[in-house]
Amino acid sequence: MKQLLPRILPTSTITCCLIALLLSVVSCRKENALVPSDEDENYFVVKDNPNDPVDHAIYEFYNATGIAGFCNDTIHRKHVGNNEGQPKYTYITLSLSYTFYSKQSINFKPVSNKSRIPALLHLLKQEFLPGLPENFQIPSLFFVDSIWTLHPEQNIDIADGWTSFHGFNTVAISVKDVEAMNADEQRMYLSSLLAGLAERRLKRDAYQHLSRDFFSISRTAAKAMTSTDIYSGTPFVLLGIYTVPPAQNLGFMKYFKNAFAIWMGMPDPVAPPGESEDLRAFLTAAFYYTPQEFESINAGKTLILKKFNAIRDIALNAGFRLPG
Question: For residue 300, what are the domain limits?
Fold first, then answer.
């Protein structure tokens, strides 16, 4: 008599059956009713606080321009549920980075003296906003003490153009004591603020023009000294350049103390500027000086003058207003 053996199903078949059963159970389960979300809620609003002169000034600026200003990068807290009796929140924040994968590290210090903000807002309304192209959009303002990237904070001057930074959903503004400045100092501060926003606009919309007519001047001058890109942020010693040439010989306004070179204990820890640093310095000069003024100050500095004229042309074509 022939013996019948039990038929064993393959493991893959059993798995598929279990998945099908699970999906049928889930599909038959009654779903909760859909409720409207608040994804389109506008968090960039300012409420008036007449009892606080700073808050009131920020509100008046918002009321006049439509641009909200904040002193904290967390602008809203929303209750989203509870976990074992404890409330859970989500936070709406201002971000200076464009993506999670951004290679640029932006650092800032929170604003320490808010009493300086009303005078700053007056300068922004009267001089700063009119200097921008007509289609320039500012999502919000984030008031901070200082902004910096790869270079040590103490190595940055107003003329370097690092008083503003256009981030993902805000523009960071480094708050200075406007009331204590004379007219020339206010003009330099204003030029630096404009340079920060112009840098982002030009690198986004006119980078090919910048690369061909501006950055190429310093790159060409440096080829005789090193095969490494002069804008790489590498200290001179690591470039194989042991006698640091004058900055003007490479078409730069200045060199910067390099954080890596300082950490390594190098005797002369300086490096050429990166593209952003170089561009911001020349943009600040372009917003501050007329061509005649800049030429008289930098007579004989051929590469400096060539880059100044190039950045003026590019900025003017982008819609920025320059002196002269």
Answer: 206-317
Categorize the per-residue pLDDT at 268 as very low, low, confident or very high, splitting at 50, 70 and 90: confident
Please provide residue 298's backbone torsions phi and psi, each rounded to the nearest 5 degrees.
-115, 35
* pLDDT score for 250: 97
Q: CA nearest 146: which of 110, 98, 93, 94?
A: 110
Q: Cα dihedral sign for 6, 7, 10, 15?
A: negative
Is 111 domain-assigned?
Answer: yes
In degrees and rounded to multiples of 5, residue 184 shows phi and psi of -65, -40
104 has pLDDT over 70: no
Instruction: Report the distance separating Cα 2 and Cα 15, nearest Å.
Output: 32
**Integer angstrom CA distances of residue 249 from 37, 164, 207, 254, 303:** 59, 28, 24, 11, 7
Distance from C-alpha of 191 to C-alpha of 289, rounded to nearest angstrom: 9
pLDDT tens profile 201-239? 999 999 999 999 999 999 999 998 999 999 998 888 888
Assess whether 171 and 137 both reside in one domain: yes
Domain count, the chain: 2
Which residue, among 160, 172, 211, 201, has the nearest Cα to 316 in the 3D structure? 201
Please indicate, yes or no, whether residues 113 and 194 belong to a single structural domain of this protein. Answer: yes
